Amino acid sequence: MTWDIALILAMDGLANGAVYLLAGLGLVLIFSVTRVVFVPFGDIAAFAALTLAAFETKRVPPTIGLVLTLAALAVATEVASLLRRHEHAKVARAIAAWGLLPALPCLAAWLATRPGVPPAVHVGVSVLLVVPIAPLLARVVFQPIADASVLVLLIVSLALHFLLSGLGLLFFGPEGSRTAPLATGSLQIADGFVVSGQVILMIASALVLSGLFFLVFERTIAGKALRATAVNRVGARLVGIRPARTALLAYGCASLLAGLIGVLIAPVTTMYYDSGFIIGLKAFVAAIIGGLVSYPATAAGALAVGLVESFASFWSGALKDVIVFSLLIPVLMLRSFLTAHAEEDDEEIDT
Amino acid sequence: MKTLIRTATAAALATAFSVSAWAADLKVGLSVALSGPNSSLGIPYSKGMQAALAYRPEVNGRKIQLVVLDDNSDPSTAGRNARKLIEEEKCDVIMGTSGVPSALAMAQVAKETKTPMIGLTPISLDAADNPWVFTVAQPTQLMVDAVVDRMKANGVKTVGYIGFSDAWGDLVYDALMKATPAAGIKVVSNERYARADQSVTGQVLKIVALRPDAVMTGGAGTPGALPFLALTERGFKGGVYGQHGLINPDFIRVAGASGQNALMPTGPVIVAEQLPNDYPTKKVALDFRAAFQKVNGTPSTDAFSAYSFDGWLVFADAAARAKGEPGTPEFRAALRDAIATTKEVVGTHGVYNFKVGNIYGVDNRARVIVKLDNGQWKLAP
């Protein structure tokens, strides 16, 4: 291996790591607030990428139908629970919040399929269109079982992944798609070492978004509410934070991150209906390195996963994923040595 | 009530009569994937078969009936379908299917029930163990040999290989290793990637660092486009060769400009219009195009529907020579023997000569090298 090869591999690894970083942040955010390991995260990213591909091939993205169906289900769930509690006055508001709000990006998407719409609008609409998916899924599926054990939540989340990837196959077909690059041009850093604009965009987005994350968590009330819920749900309730509301916020943020990941990687990798899962899985490795609570450790873990993956593909292409997932073993061993207790077990015995 | 009974009796009689009238008809059973992940192959297979039925609806005055079942891209359903076609529908021959594991499941049933089967995909099985199965597809070795011949003609001395980390990647690699020593070409790498991988940058860097004269890829469909994209990105200047798994409109869509000038082997039907007039399969291939257009209302652009057409022609030729009454075990055995002695039957993909002990029946006339030029396949003689 020569220096220029190592540089190219490192750059490739950083670009992948940037994607895992964003996905890892989303996973940690949802897990810390709701205790759900959100497996369908990657599927939402794939939906965003394939929606953009559908726009580029001048088709109406089938994602619109999915969002509208989910919105209808969420309205039904919400209205039913309101009626059961005899809170008739709130029904109109529930319909507006759960039915009309998610319909707005659908309308935008439908308008964007008209000829003459610039590609930048397609990118924006693709991200917006997938944003309601995670909150709606959460309202229909996770909110009613919010107090179940982590294991039950994980199993439900896995089932949701299979549902979504099956729908992806139905909507987008078995063949993959690639989209036009968001950033053209490239940067010549050294002789024979060129970094493409898309890679720079990916790394820059990861940096900017994680910076924004930090600011939101440190400086805003919503961010502080999220952190409070993550630290202690009961305590957060006592000081007037509604866990259901913060969970929704967490799902919304994660969905937005997934959408951004989708449009960022669609130009550099061929996206299939099931590509999201493997991205989610590698981000999960990063999140485990961060113990599913720490954002900085997750970020470091994501970059490590990206770099290891890139160099492993050079040394042994066929064993690449094996090497990446083997990272879990030393990390888990180290973690089990460093932490003594397992609070989750007590909880499961109680329930 | 009386009327009802009378009607029912009449209906039963009519059915019995028509069944006995049909008994003399030949019956072809087709099981393909009309749904599921393999349906992008299965639907053209089925359309091609409908075109073949319209092109040659009878043999020696006997009508041919076609029964089509959907196997949902699932091998166990394909096996059940084969049984249903043979035991319930009393088909004289079964054909299928999209996907090698499904085809193997059907072949097993064909052997058990002693029914001839004409496969539409390459099937890897021992002809001595299962003498009831034949296939119209080209063997991988035949196709890769053509690529290696072309490499030799282009002065290639060293070639890097990158392919899927599954059976298809192995099959192409083994064929390459078998063909290259005789041509004096050295294979310098054996890089693999999974169908679901997002990037092959690492593998391609390794190949580029070895500086081979050319690169051979062992992928299929859209995931097969990854090495082409990565090699272009790294500025690889040598030739890039593919194989018939990449002859697919979705590959062209994803590979885009990076597939420009890629060379790969295929059945001649893909470039039927560009073939010289004396090419043996040209007339049948053009007839097939016309029949397909007439029956389905769209032009045929894929290789799969043409395999169905060839399967039908091989069957029709054998049925004309087989003695006996259709629907009986004797006829099925006679039909198998007739298929095994097929001589110079001209199809769309090649000229078929089947022999006992070999499930493949094509020769050098069943392959041409094509070049991808601005999203179109161009014959590269």
Helix run count of chain A: 16
Cα-based radius of gyration of chain B, to the nearest Å = 23 Å
| Portion in helices of chain B | 40-55%
Find the count of extended strands of chain A (DSSP E, 2+ residues).
2
Tell me about this structure.
Chain A contains 16 helices and 2 strands. Chain A has helices at residues 3-34, 41-56, 63-84, 91-112, 119-130, 133-142, 150-172, 197-219, 221-231, 233-238, 243-265, 275-289, 295-315, 320-326, 328-338, 343-350; strands spanning 186-190, 193-196. In chain A, a hairpin with a 2-residue loop joins strand 1 and strand 2. In chain B, the strands form 4 sheets. Chain B has a 6-stranded mixed beta sheet, with helices on both faces. Chain B has a 4-stranded parallel beta sheet with strand order 8-7-9-10, sandwiched between helices. Chain B is 43% helix and 18% strand. Classes of the chains: A mainly alpha (351), B alpha/beta (381). Chains A and B meet through helix 1, helix 12 and helix 13 of A and strand 8, helix 7 and helix 9 of B.
Feature tags:
heterodimer; A: 351 residues; mainly alpha; 75% helix; 3% strand; globular; disordered C terminus; B: 381 residues; 43% helix
Entry summary:
The complex is a heterodimer of chains A (351) and B (381). Chain A has 351 residues and is an all-alpha fold. Chain A contains 16 helices and two strands.
